[in-house]
Every structure is written in C-alpha cells, then in structure tokens.
Amino acid sequence: xxxxxxxxxxxxxxxxxxxxxxxxxxxxxxxxxxxxxxxxxxxxxxxxxxxxxxxxxxxxxxxxxxxxxxxxxxxxxxxxxxxxxxxxxxxxxxxxxxxxxxxxxxxxxxxxxxxxxxxxxxxxxxxxxxxxxxxxxxxxxxxxxxxxxxxxxxxxxxxxxxxxxxxxxxxxxxxxxxxxxxxxxxxxxxxxxxxxxxxxxxxxxxxxxxxxxxxxxxxxxxxxxxxxxxxxxxxxxxxxxxxxxxxxxxxxxxxxxxxxxxxxxxxxxxxxxxxxxxxxxxxxxxxxxxxxxxxxxxxxxxxxxxxxxxxxxxxxxxxxxxxxxxxxxxxxxxxxxxxxxxxxxxxxxxxxxxxxxxxxxxxxxxxxxxxxxxxxxxxxxxxxxxx
Amino acid sequence: xxxxxxxxxxxxxxxxxxxxxxxxxxxxxxxxxxxxxxxxxxxxxxxxxxxxxxxxxxxxxxxxxxxxxxxxxxxxxxxxxxxxxxxxxxxxxxxxxxxxxxxxxxxxxxxxxxxxxxxxxxxxxxxxxxxxxxxxxxxxxxxxxxxxxxxxxxxxxxxxxxxxxxxxxxxxxxxxxxxxxxxxxxxxxxxxxxxxxxxxxxxxxxxxxxxxxxxxxxxxxxxxxxxxxxxxxxxxxxxxxxxxxxxxxxxxxxxxxxxxxxxxxxxxxxxxxxxxxxxxxxxxx
Amino acid sequence: xxxxxxxxxxxxxxxxxxxxxxxxxxxxxxxxxxxxxxxxxxxxxxxxxxxxxxxxxxxxxxxxxxxxxxxxxxxxxxxxxxxxxxxxxxxxxxxxxxxxxxxxxxxxxxxxxxxxxxxxxxxxxxxxxxxxxxxxxxxxxxxxxxxxxxxxxxxxxxxxxxxxxxxxxxxxxxxxxxxxxxxxxxxxxxxxxxxxxxxxxxxxxxxxxxxxxxxxxxxxxxxxxxxxxxxxxxxxxxxxxxxxxxxxxxxxxxxxxxxxxxxxxxxxxxxxxxxxxxxxxxxxxxxxxxxxxxxxxxxxxxxxxxxxxxxxxxxxxxxxxxxxxxxxxxxxxxxxxxxxxxxxxxxxxxxxxxxxxxxxxxxxxxxxxxxxxxxxxxxxxxxxxxxxxxxxxxxxxxxxxxxxxxxxxxxxxxxxxxx
Lengths: 387, 285, 419
Description:
The complex is a heterotrimer of chains A (387), B (285) and C (419). With 387 residues, chain A is an alpha/beta fold. In chain A, 37% of the residues lie in helices and 20% in strands. The radius of gyration of chain A is 19 Å and the shape is globular. Chain C has 2 domains: 32-163, no CATH class; 171-412, 3-Layer(aba) Sandwich (Rossmann fold). Chain C has helices at 32-38, 93-96, 180-191, 211-214, 230-240, 266-275, 277-292, 320-340, 370-382, 392-403, 405-412, and strands at 44-48, 54-55, 70-74, 78-87, 101-108, 113-118, 127-135, 141-147, 171-174, 196-201, 220-224, 246-249, 303-307, 346-350, 387-388. In chain C, β7 and β8 (141-147) form a beta hairpin. Chain C is globular and about 65 Å long. Chains B and C meet through β2, α5 and β8 of B and α5 and α6 of C.
C-alpha cells in the first residue's frame, strides 16, 4: 500500500528555552516554559492546544500524562515519545496524521531535559535493560564508548580520518558563532579539535556533545489553521521512521534511513539535490557521515570523499546544522532531536536567530537515537519546505 | 535412748545437707585455729580455653575443653553487665573424679557428685614428693615401696586422707610440654597398678591426686589393668583430683584439703576450686 | 603490554587506606543466569529450544521466534573482535580509578554481539578471539575477550588481574594447617607463590606427621588458632587480621555417623562447633578487617575460601551429622558472601566429594586425592569462580542434584550407592 502523502500539514512557532549547563529546575519547568513560548508565539489561549507530544528523559517518574495535570491542559490527543534524538521526527509523524484526520487541531511538540551535575552518570547507568546488563559494567563509558566503537569501525572500514570529522565540527562551530543561544561561543580550530582531551579512542572532547538543560518546541497544525492564526510556517513534505533496522549488522555502519530514504524523497517530490540545507542528528560526527550516506547524499563508504568535496558552513556548498548543531549548541537531552526541526522552521520562515541560508526552499531534518545496547535503534527524517 | 536420738538427728541432718564433721577432722580444724594461724594455698589451675584437655583417639567421644562465649559486656547486648556462657567437659582443668566415673565404681553407693558425702570435702593430705624422679623420667611410676619409704619418715598414711603425688608437673606452662605426647602416646608420671591398689585397699585413702592431666600415668592404657588408679580407686569408692598445682608449697603432712565439686545431678566429676589450709607452723619436709 | 605478577611495593603506612569501589552491580533477572554460570567458571548463553537462536543480551523470550523456551547452554566463545576503544573517561569511580580501559565489541560465531573486556594479549581489531565469562569484583559476570588460541590467564593482564584472587605474592591464612587437607593446601599455596602463609594450629600437643616438616618451610608461620575457641580466633585476628589477603578455611571435623549410629549429640556437636560455628567465629573476627582492606591496592584483602563438601548439597546418610554440619556451613557462607560483597571480597566454596583421607577410609573409590583438592583450590583463586566442584564424584553429584534433587536424595538413602 502506498503511503499517504502529507497534505496540508505545517510546522510553526519555533521555540527554544535557552540552554544552560546545569539547572536546579526540573524537566517540568523547561517543558512548561516551552509550552508558554508556543502559545505566546501563536497568540492563542492555552486551551486551544488540544494535542501534545512530549519527549524527555528527566521527566521521570512522570510521562506526558503527568504533564497534562502539571501544566493544566485538557487534551484529546496525547503522545509520550521516548525515542531520544528521533523523538522530534517521530512526533512530527504522529502529530501530522492527528491533525490531518481531525483527531487534534493544534499539537504542541515539545522536548526538554534538565541537567544536574550527576545527571549524565545517573541517566547512563539506567538507560536500558540491555545497557545495564551488557554495556555499563564494561567501563561505564556511556554513549561515548558505544560511539567510539562505531567511529573506530567506520574509520577502519572506509578510511575516514579524524581530520575529516574535524572539518565537520569546525564548520558547525562556525555556524554557532552567530547563534546567541549556543553554549559554545568561541571558534574551534582543527588543531584544537585534533589535540583535545581523549575521551574514548578515537573520540576526543569535541567529538562529544555537551549535555545541558533546555527545551525546544513547535506546533503542528493544518495549513488552514495556521493561515487563520496568521502564522508563518514550514510545510511538511515527507517523513520516515524506522526502528531496529539491520539488526544483524555486526557493527552499526548504516542506519534505518538506508531502508527508507527513497520513500522520503518520493513523498517530498524531490531528490537529495533538491534540499538546500540539512540538519542532521549530530551527537557524534560519525553519525553525521552515516546520515550523509544513508540519506542519499553520497554512497556508502563515500563519506570521506563527500566531506573533502564540500564546505558545511551556512554559506557553504552543503549547509549543515546551521545553528551549530548539538555539538556546538549543546544537547538538552531529548530536545537534541528537536533542535534541528526548530532550526529548519526558522530557516524556512526567514526568522533565524543567527546566520541565514540564502533563499532556502527545502530543508531536511534527520533524527537518530537510543543506543539501547550496541547500536542506535531509532532513525527518522523529514523534508520541510518554505511556505 | 540418747544414742538413738543422736543417730536420728544425724540422719535428719544428712537429709538436710549438713553434717557434723568427723572427730578427727574437728581436731585438725582446731589446730588450725591455734596461734600462728593458717596459710591458704590455691591448688587450682585457672580454667581457661588454652588449658589442655585429655587426648583420646578420635573415634571415641571427646571431652570438651573449657570454652567461654560472651553474652554481653556493658554493651548493646546488655548495657550494665558482663557475663558469659561457659562450657566444659566434667573432666576439664583442675577437676574432681567421682567413683561413678569408672566402670569399676558404677555400683558403689553415693558415687556421683550430687550424692557424695559432704564430710569428704574437707580432708587431710599426704604429699608424696616425686619431683626429682619425674624430672628425670617422664614415665616415672610411683610404687608401693616408694609409699613405704615415705611412711617411714612421715608416718602411716591415715584412712580418709588424700594421697597427693607431687611431681612439679604443673610448672610445665607450655601445653605441649604438659601433655608430653609423642607417636607412642602420652608420657606423664603416675602410680603403678600395685601402688594404686595398695593406697585404695590397704590405706583406705580418700582419693589420689596428681598434677598431671590424669591420675593415671600417661602410658596407663598399657598397664594391667588399664588405668589402674581409676580402676582401683573408683572401684573402692575413692576419688581423684587432677591438674593440681602448688603441691610444692604444701608440707608432707598437716595440710587440710578443701575440695568440693559442683553438685551436678549424676555428675562423674567437675572442675572445682581446690585449696589447702596449712598451719603456719607445720611439719615441712 | 602483558606483565607477569610481581611482588607489589610496601604500602606507605601513613597514606590512607583506599576504600573499595566496585564495578556496576545491577543486573536484570535474566542476566543473572550469566553470573550463575560464571560462578562455576562457565560461559553460557541462552539458546532457544524451538529455533536454536542464541540470545545476547539475556532476555525473556527468543529474539527470533518469541518462544519462551530459553535454556542456558555452554558456549565455546569463538568470534571476531570487530571494533574496540580505549576509555579515557568513565562515569563510575571504579573505572575512573583504573583508566585507561580497553573494551571491545565481539561478533560471536553463533551470531550475537557482545561487548567485552579485552585481554591485553589480544591484537588489534579485527582479529579472532575467544570469549570467556569471569566474575568481576562486584561478583557479577563480565565477558572477557582472549586471544583465539592458547590459554591466557586473567592474571597476565594487569587490569584484569583484579578479577582473580591469585595467591602469588599474597599473605594467606589457612585456618587448620595440621589436617591432611590443610597440609596439602598449604604446600600448594607455597608452590603458587604466596609470600606468607599463616598456618593455624589447634591443640599444639598433638603431633601430626607431615606437619612438623611444614615448620621448615620459610613462607610458613605456624600460629595458634582453634576455631572452637572464640578467644583464640579473636587474638589471632588482632595480631594478623589486618594483613590477611586470602583466608582459606580448612578447619573441618569429619566423623562418620548417621543418627542412630552414635548415641548422644557430643560428636555432632563437635562437628557443628568446628564446621559451622568455627566459620561463624572466623567470619565475625576477620571479615570486618578484610572488608576494610579490600581495596588496599595490590595488597588488599581479596578472597575467603571455604572447604565445604559435596555432602553440603545433599546429605550422605552414613555421614549424616557431618553432612548436616557442612550444609549449615554452606548456608552461612552465603550470608558471608552477601556481607563481603560490598567490599568486593570473593567467597569461594569448594565442594569436594570424598577425599582420600582418614575419614573417608571406608568410602569406595573414586576419591579425590589431597593434591588434587589443593590444586583445584589454588586454581579457583587464580581464576574468577565462586563454586568449585573438584573431581569426578563432585561433578557427578552436582549434576544429579541440579537434575532432580529429590531423585538424588533417594539414591543416597539407598545405602548401597558407593557415593
């Protein structure tokens, strides 16, 4: 059965609750501030929000349900999306069908996490049953160890060098310099990247995101609703998701996008060439490269060549993570996967916080996450277009 | 009439657990109260876990050494008090053997601890010094002729007196030396069979006492009969005292031994506090 | 770079004793099956009885056909080290203290991925390896990738060595060195390179053949110890307790009576006083100080070994009261294991079948040679196991017990069974 196209679904009101390294506030606070920002930005009363999709690690023991009472919202559509960096894309897919079918009119998609000095250790230790049983006891390196495995494998198999990854990180830092909300304020040189403190070979400090507290959010609705409210928006052209793809690959060298990207572009009505900027899920540079390959921008294993052949600044040949990405802005937990969506909406509506891509017509946002054991289980992507 | 009354009174007193001391005993006690006074000599080793206990082949039932388990010591187990649960075999440490302890004495009247006649708990002692012989020969055996020689000097051993064999063995503080075991068994001094029989039957002693771990010599299993001191003494309703010390502080005659074992129901023996009352001016050897 | 075990330097007495930290100990119920096998020195994974798929990480239903019929089966562990890293940061104190730390991902030939420690004799990935399961200091199973060929001791890797309780360069207390078992164990520990072996002697007046010769061995120090005497245990603990790295409890009173064969409880009481209360006294006096020293670098307290008996598992009626006393000791040793766990001191239980000593004289062969028992004990210390069943009889008995303990009980009460 052919998948139904996304007609008339728009994403609007991009909101960021500014990131801080540590906060004494709980996730409820950040989510609440995001929702406040959304209704203020949309100039609607809170009661107009009748759907909510939430992603947060530190909301526990609450889920989206607890939030309804905490924030005082009465809803006819509710989804808690525990898929890490893929939660944003998955929220879009859920919300889109909801508003298309009339199950909900205005869905708030919010993601937030708080961060305390011991959050990282605590979250890592109890991340999943498989991680508890089969990963954490082996060095407690958290996701750093898991992505070190992938990075080492990819470098060995495809000849990528640290300089290749460094080029991406330096470019993203350049993109972040004009973003007032980025936690990293100074340029990054390739030398600094190469010589930074080792974390887990071959990863060094600037290969890793900085966990922080913050929130991202946007609204999903039908275009007609947005027009009535006088809102600027991005149109949803296509969206894919996949979970536990390629379970028998000995080491993860490709993500679920490899299975679904053709369908994505078919839905969107354009190929990879029709995309003007890309917001990848950049928890580690190697994942960026997997997304280049698996989303069709180059062939499998051609990542290094692709990096050599392009520049990734906002003004470059392949604008990548135009607000700096998680690597330079910070990772507010589950909001990391919403960061790119919110930035894409800003770029496509012309209302960026920092540097602007020249005349963008379409942007691609990708999500990835949940190293349940030895690979990221969730992947997703969406193509958005200017109004 | 008076005699019958006296006898009735005595029987009543016996039942009540008291008795009039025998006349010769009363005499002895009164000499102690003479001017010059009395020395008290402790003949008891301290009852402690390290003190050796009798070694038997492992197939046989074992007599337990002294053990103490603390109940509390001014702590959360008992805030204001200190006390212990102790355990021991009846024949542990300085102890008293009753006739029922041996097969030859099992049918004797008043042969277990709770039925022993009270007047036997104070008795005179004859101390026979074998210290130099025992020093020269760990297997030294006291013989009847040794007794006869002793009596020439100190007089006949009276009936009802303890015969104590002084060997200075108690001065062996190292338990290994005290036990003196090798692959042929134990080597400690004691009486030979005829001597034991003589003292029990011909001298009617109250009992035999030693400083070693048994009244019998270490090699007595090989004698005929085996363990003759136990055999003859208990067979004649006599007693034993073992692991005594300080016999070298006693005169050959003249000391009064106080040896009162615990009143254990059907007890065969018990550790006890045994001490001597020695007149200050007395016949020292 | 592999380094053989060398004698560590003396600790500076004014520096603070390190407190024990442990690797992460949380495991799901299913994952504890891995630990149960590793406790015996086995590497097992779940296998689906319906479709034969091997499972990892451990789980509740088959990842292939969803069957619930998963059974733990022994694995040979062969596979390929596909990728690896060296950690320079870690979330947990235990690993922070031990950085850098090498860890790798292995694709087993049976078709599952495992994350494992990598023995430093393993070359650079990709390469073939052999996975084994070991117990870490938290008492949980972890997987270790060894070179594919040859046997490589955990001790040869300076990081993984900590998972063993190798007696080399260590100070050991053997609670009863006079018995035949005690003498054999002491000699085996000397041969294994222990620095000092305090050998407990009760009843010094009893001369045992072979024991006098032990006095001449330079590493051996005879000390008074009677496990039936609390004061004796306390005094020795006060003198040397703070130096004991490994305690081997060989104290055993073994008599050969059932219930009716011996009137009175004196013999059974002695068996209990040595085999059960003896363990309790030793544990009360020595476990606390061993716990406090458990992380004291390479000279910390690491292990407690009990020589139990396969009779502890199922009563052997001709030695009925002895069996009961060893069963009591087994139960108590589990409590001891739980109390020592937070410090990472491993409790190892040996379950030999009848030993070729004076008390099993009338038991028909096969019997375990003293040297074999001692060798198994030393090997257990050099490995990372908790439960050891040395010898054919012990292995047989254990297999029957696991198969159906009630059937074993009936077999043993038959009377004719030659153990």
